[in-house]
Design brief:
The chain has 76 residues and is of the alpha/beta class. The protein is built from 3 helices and 3 strands; from the N terminus they run αβαβαβ. It has a 3-stranded parallel sheet with strand order 2-1-3, with helices on both faces. The chain is flat and about 30 Å long.
């Protein structure tokens, strides 16, 4: 994935109101997580993909906004 595509992705997320990103640990996601932080989206790191999903759901319900989720190809 090129830097331009990643930046475009986060610009689009911000344009629809995304302010938070929950992500699971994984070295393959490093560029996405860095770009997320550079775009001004609040990061919420987790070690378990299930925790990512549950927290993101609660955050979305609380804030009434979409929440971006980034995970690796974990088994959860």
């Amino acid at each position: 994935m090129t830097t331009a595509i990643i930046e475009s992705l986060f610009e689009r997320c911000i344009s629809i109101g995304v302010t938070d990103c929950c992500f699971g640990a994984g070295s393959r996601s490093t560029r996405l997580i860095q770009a997320c932080q550079n775009a001004g989206i609040n990061p919420h790191p987790f070690f378990d993909e299930r925790a990512v999903a549950y927290y993101a759901l609660g955050l979305a319900k609380t804030t009434q906004r979409s929440v971006l989720i980034i995970t690796t190809s974990g088994t959860a």
